[in-house]
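Look over this record before class:
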Amino acid sequence: MRTDRRKPVKAVRQLRRIRSFYTGGFLLWAGSAAWTASHAPGGRQMWASLLLLGLFAGLLLTACVLLRRIEAAAPARAARRAAPGKPAARPATALAPE
């Protein structure tokens, strides 16, 4: 059972890392496409930059959609409970004398 709960946590962590990588790639290729379009409009380098920009945009979009689906499907965490046989800690206000 524990591995079932940990899989979404691990997947979310990995998707967040890869999302930042894809964001970096998207920004890199957007800058490259803008620079090559201003220096050599219609050139092979511009089209290659635009192709890679589209690739990273698609990968980033896919990672964002998968991350939202996993986070929406994950149940809310249950409140932590005291260990069996031990009383739950009372709030500090309950300990103060009246």
About this structure: DSSP finds three helices and no strands in the chain. The chain has a mean pLDDT of 82. Helices lie at 2-39, 44-73, 92-95. The CA atoms of residues 36 and 44 lie 9 Å apart.
